[in-house]
Amino acid sequence: MKFTGTLALASAVASAEAAETVLGAYMFHRHGDRTPKSLAPTNLTALGYEQVYTSGQYYRSRYLTGDSKIKGMNQDTVRLTQLAVTAPVDNVLQNSAQGFLQGLYPPYQSAQTLRNGSDVQAPMDGYQLIPINTVDTGAGSEDNGWLQDASSCANAKTSSNAFFSSAEYNDLLNKTTDFYKALVPVVNGTFDEKDVTFKNAYVVYDLINVAEIHNSSIPSSDVLTNDTLYQIRTLADAHEYGLAYNASDNIRAISGMQLAGELLKYMNTTIKSGQDGTSANKFGIQFGAYATFLSFFGLVDLPHANETFYGVPDYASSMVFELFTTADTSNGFPATDDLQVRFLFHNGTTSNASEPAVYPLFGGNDDAISWNKFSSNMNKIAVSTTEQWCTKCGNTTGKCAQYSQDGTDGSANASSSGGGSHMSAAIGGVIGAFVTLAVVLGLLAAFMLLGGFRLAKKGRASTASPVSEVAGSKA
């Protein structure tokens, strides 16, 4: 992703105005530099470690110590109730989150004197232990070459596969045949010639990109002119955006929908905690893959703000949602109507020399919008519960079985050959009960008729109510 001149609005957001108070923030961050997907398992490189660590240092200077400090956030020692960090079960993403946290909360109180006068030296100069919670979404994403391989959403996979039969895809596939054929000598140590096509645009780009960063020599490197490298990247961008988002079939953006739901859930807890005076849930941080960026970009119409949002974000890119107010906070947390949200993004490693810029969301023009408007628009795209996810994805087994139509093992109700409608489980149960009762009464009548039995009424006792019973006489 290459941002152009209109992105140089970063300075306008470098520091919040004195009248502003930042109340909380939620961040989605990409991993640092890694080894190529085509040579799995992928690993975070030393460069990648340095990138996310530097980003952590920047956000420390912004939200913990600087002018945009989050109100009430602990500065030097981590308070775990204020911080929530998540990442998929993925080596690169988990390690990236850990590296970022080392920059955000560096070692503190490396030594301690005990009551008996002895000194204890903390391991690693007081390294702060911060847990990283794991999430199912995107598990193993950095070892997968195809964007939706890390998703278990059935409808999202079907939707993404539809891209391969689209006119856009086939047009680029046919137009770029010769272009990719020229790249075969560069990558034939990893890919078969038949696989070097637009169909594999991203993994081909990824291999070449890693080589350009790390390799001292590249086979047939004369092929890789600046124009060719730009074209390789641009084609990879088009390929991955097509798989991540489609305006007329947005289920393929399920990862962006889940991010919207997680963001809303966390920010609501930030507001509730502020109203309760508990000073918790200040800063939510999630690490994830580029697919979620692209899906979310499409869902909130960020390409309207800048066309470069069609592209794959660079390593260590970050986007942040700041919850802030311009109201007086000296007497407590402001009213909901006084809350605003601002969206910031930075392509690549964030630092004090290269800060994030603000962009308008939902196709608008405002740098900030009210919390009420933000939450309303986000709720339109958010997937916040397992039931919502199962319904949208069309999944009916495992955790989704309880939400399937028949409520049994998760398989869909079988339709009749005529395509008729189905009765609900509740109605079916009632009808079944009546059928059973009719059968029992029928058997009872037959038993009485054939056995010479009759219904008789007992005499009335002084304290008893009339009772019917089955009475019989010997033959």
From TrEMBL:
KW Transmembrane helix (keyword) present: yes
Molecular functions (GO terms): phosphatase activity
Record field: transmembrane: 425-450
Position of the signal peptide: 1-18
Keyword Transmembrane helix: yes
Family matches, as Pfam families: His_Phos_2
Keywords tagged on the record: Membrane, Signal, Transmembrane, Transmembrane helix
Family, similarity comment: Belongs to the histidine acid phosphatase family.
Protein name (database record): Phosphoglycerate mutase-like protein
The organism's taxonomic lineage, starting at the top: Eukaryota, Fungi, Dikarya, Ascomycota, Pezizomycotina
